[in-house]
Amino acid sequence: MDASSPVAAAQGASPFSRAVTGAGFFAGLLLVAPHALLTSMALARAGWPAAELVAFFWLWGLAMAVSRRGLSLGLTLLGFSPFLFGAQSYVYPGVAFGLLADVAALAFCWRNAGGKAASGESTGPTGALLAALAALALGSTLLLPWARFWQELSLFGPGGFFAAMAFSPADAPGYALAGAWRLAIFAVLAFGLARLDFPDRFGCLIRGLVGGLLTAIVFGLYEHFQGDHYLLHYRFTSLFANPGWFAEYAAVAAPYLLTLLAGANLRRRALAALGLALCGAAMVLTLARAGWIAGSLTFFAAGWLYFRENRFVRFRRPYGHLPTLAVAGALVVGIAFWGAGRELSAISRPINALLAKRVDNFTDSPRPTLFRSGLLIAAERPVFGMGFTSYARHYPVLLATPGAWLNRYGDPRAEVFETPHSMYVQLAAGLGAAGLLVWLAMVGRAGWVLWRRARDYASLPDAALLLSLAAFHVYAFFQEMFYVPAVLFLLFIPLARAMALEAGAAREGRARGTGWVRAAAGGVALCGILAYGLDIGLGGTAARLGLYDWMPPGEKVVFEGFYPPEQGQGRTFRWSAGDAALLVPPGTGSLTLSLAAASPTEATFFSPAGLWARVGLDGGPVTVTLPVPETGDGRAVPLYLLTTRAFVPQAATGAADPRRLGVAVGVVGRH
């Protein structure tokens, strides 16, 4: 697959262009390198299997950095790998995939620096809009409680603070900080990929994506239809933690199966047909209705390529296969109905019964309520939003605050989720109308570039990249696509290809009149950062709503850096993600806590006045009652929890739990 090469990029570039590009290159390194080192530390401490994975990632990155053959194999592995890390961002697989992206980005930066591609090449409109979006996301972190962050950093240390941030669930301020950092790192990875002096880089990625998707499906089908459970008693997930997340991955990666149709190789075309059939079956078995909608783009495209004359693929007898397809389809339908009417020991819930239920309830979904909640949160700061991926943090506060839009028009009985289940609503809530428009402009420009390339050169790989971009954004109407890093990564491959094509057009003198896009994108980013700075820590918004602190009025204790509540041994408790914090309203007097740990450890609490308590834990629950100091300014009292040991069961013992567990904390008398 031919792609634009950045050789001799510095020739003919203006001094200003070289300075801006060089500054962006080093800013990217400053974003990626500390994240990679701190992630490596956090994972290496989780157990020997995690430490071995970290070592493998760094060796893989080194091979890509110093060897062209290593780069080819490494890019293929990068495309193959997402299905191995199909979980949300704040658990072990998600954090590990973040390190994979870090190492890949560093390898690309090293190769680009060595090839002098780090200076002089102006950024096209897609790159400028992506940079502006990353700047907005990072700037929005100014709305987070930085005074508390600095205190936590001094108490936890850089490693402890980062681990708590990386493993914090979506309602914690650290989650928003980690999300903005991750988006910026993926942007750096895309910039590096676009500028690599390796013509087949996108071909390697596509081959890896095809291999990974087929492996995920075959392995998932094997797991789905074996064992002592009843056949089809649960939704298809493969290695993903959730069937909907696998459906996201499959719908966005499926277009790359079409690249196997290129040429007249019968084996490749047979593999394409088999792959599309398996992918269709897997997406049906997920019972993810959004996946059916987004995934249908690939199958419509396959039908168009097969039955319509086009310049991408030529088939000798497309209609000659119709009788075979009809017989095969009738056979499948007949077997399905036969299985549905039989009482077989292996079939307890036939698939067509499950499908009928999902189709009958197609519109029965909490999403409209979630969409409205997200838009009501966006209404508090409609232009630049409340902070990137901060929906879950703001929802309980604004729902309980008189005068807030969500309090006035939201539904207090609605089920609570960590995301609004729509990327567009999350963007509007987090980065406002400005961020949403920048995103849409970026995607629209990238799509236009890919469409032009596919049309003018009859490039099937570019058509597949365009379809993948479209499937991602169709699915984004129904899911918040930032939640699973392995799925979000798939977006940056077509973006990188569009940036590479724009760079090639600029070198050939075919890119004119795009300077205003770069200027507008930079202006929006600067205005956004200024707006966030004027409301730092949401101080202005809190004052407008009559809040002393960003916590729900009347709440006895707010947990930051803790997982959702669990029941056990007659009590309600939350596991901390290692080091964490409790916010206690002023005037509380005293607080009674129930503490426990999975193995002997020591829990140390600090208040703003210094050491608050130190409690030894040897496996059984311990109940302590402690006085709560007053801050004197009417604000909530932060109590910082430090633990001498935190562990990740999945990394340490192979258990199913992928969280990072520190101390189990419950508030006695609170339900």
Describe the structure.
It is found in: Membrane. One of its GO terms (cellular component) is membrane. Helices cover 56% and strands 9% of the residues. It has 671 residues and is of the alpha+beta class. Among the domains are: 207-355, no CATH class; 558-667, Sandwich (Jelly Rolls), CATH 2.60.120.
Question: What's the short story on this structure?
Answer:
This protein has 671 residues and is an alpha+beta fold.
Please outline the helices and strands:
Elements: H1 15-44, H2 48-66, H3 68-80, H4 92-114, H5 125-139, H6 146-166, H7 173-195, H8 201-224, H9 243-253, H10 266-286, H11 289-307, H12 322-340, H13 351-360, H14 367-378, H15 391-399, H16 405-409, H17 423-457, H18 460-475, H19 485-507, H20 515-534, H21 539-544, E1 558-562, E2 566-568, E3 571-584, E4 590-596, E5 601-607, E6 610-617, E7 622-627, E8 637-643, H22 649-652, E9 664-667
Antiparallel strand pairs: 1-3, 2-3, 3-8, 3-9, 4-7, 4-9, 5-6, 5-8
Helix pairs in contact: 1-4, 1-6, 1-7, 2-3, 2-4, 3-8, 4-7, 5-7, 5-17, 5-20, 7-19, 8-10, 9-10, 9-11, 9-18, 9-19, 10-11, 11-18, 14-17, 17-18, 17-19, 18-19
Domain O-antigen ligase-related: 275-440
Membrane topology: Multi-pass membrane protein
Keywords: Membrane, Transmembrane, Transmembrane helix
As a percent range, the share of strand residues is: 5-15%
**Helix-strand category:** alpha+beta
Helix percentage range: 55-70%
Total beta strand runs: 9
Outline the biggest β-sheet.
9 strands, antiparallel
Supply the number of helical segments. Answer: 22
InterPro entries: O-antigen_ligase-rel_domated, WaaL-like
Transmembrane segments: 20-38, 50-70, 90-108, 128-147, 175-193, 205-225, 245-263, 270-285, 319-340, 423-445, 482-503, 515-534
Protein name: O-antigen polymerase
Membrane topology: Multi-pass membrane protein
